[in-house]
Design goal:
The complex is a heterodimer of chains A (about 240) and B (about 120). By secondary structure, chain A is of the alpha/beta class. Chain A is about 40% helix and about 15% strand. Chain A has helices spanning about 20-30, 45-50, 65-80, 100-105, 130-145, 160-165, 180-185, 215-230; strands spanning about 5-10, 35-40, 55-60, 85, 110-115, 155-160, 190-195. The longest helix of chain A is centred in the middle third of the chain and has 18 residues, at about 130-145. Chain A is globular. Chain B has helices at about 5-25, 30-50, 50-60, 65-120. The chains are: A alpha/beta (about 240), B mainly alpha (about 120).
Amino acid sequence: MGPDTAVLLPAYNEADHIGNLLRRIREIAPESPCVVVDDGSTDHTAELAREAGAFVISHPFNMGYGVALQTGYKFVVRRGYSYLVQLDADGQHDPRFIPVLWERVASGHCDLCIGSRFLEGETYSIPFARRAGMFLFRRIASALVRTTITDPTSGYQAMNRRVLDFFIKDIYPTDYPDTDVLVMLYRNQFRIAEAPVIMHAAQPGKSIHSGLKPVYYLFKMALDIPLNLIRREEKQ
Amino acid sequence: MSTHQRVVAAIFALTLLVTIIELVRRRKLKEEYSWLWIMAGVGALVIGLNYSLLETITRLIGAGFTSSALFFLGIFFVLALCLQFSVKISKLETQVKNLVQHISLLEAEKSVAQQEPHNK
């Protein structure tokens, strides 16, 4: 991995993890700059990230995970990077797999590589309801994308510049960009693949799938996935 | 419909119309949002002056009473208004998102530019 690849971490109140995580990423990918999008944190996330040597982009208030990701994409495109690897800042995604995901994209094997926690056995126990949801979306994604997708809800991903140019448009769904994005990418002739990664359990209550959010998530996917199949305007 | 009822309906509809026009004139209500209100005001005026029209509408929608038809029309207007607001809010949300991102990126690039001369 060289200086043409950026590592993106959307972060909201991650002061407990961000410093150590950035230092670990620096050891693994010393030439690749880290970009932290501080999504309106009320703790010292931004200062700690800056001290650890990352580019920090701060939202004036909390805008949500998808908006933070897209802000990072826009920054990376404006700075002219060719590749991007994104991972969560809460320490759930093991940074040792950054080069693995990057290599799959940089070698031209695919345009977007998803880090899957299910390809080589599970790394932590997942509650039944969440597991059932993942199974459902795994089947839907695999059928619609016409390739085996084992972890469509994974935010641990690598992508090339073509995908980034696509993601900075207003059509990018900024609330829960998951399975619907994969369908959108497939419909626009992007190649999607997976690589095995290790993930750790998320902190209780911090997940974007906590509380009543899964109900809205299911509704949003049920509406958006079929619509993405008939939408025409984003076709390249 | 008695003359008394007609006069009250006409006064109500005219007051609504004048208020809408005055708000647009004072630029307190944008033209974009005034058309639905003007339609409602004109509709109330026409129905108020022409009771047979309300009876025809009642028959057309299969309502038992003219008052039910009036409620139906009122609820339809409120729904149309809410839908217009939802469309506008969706557009505004995208614009706010883009604005926040633009400001955040400018701030980040400014701080990068300030750091770069020191690094050289």
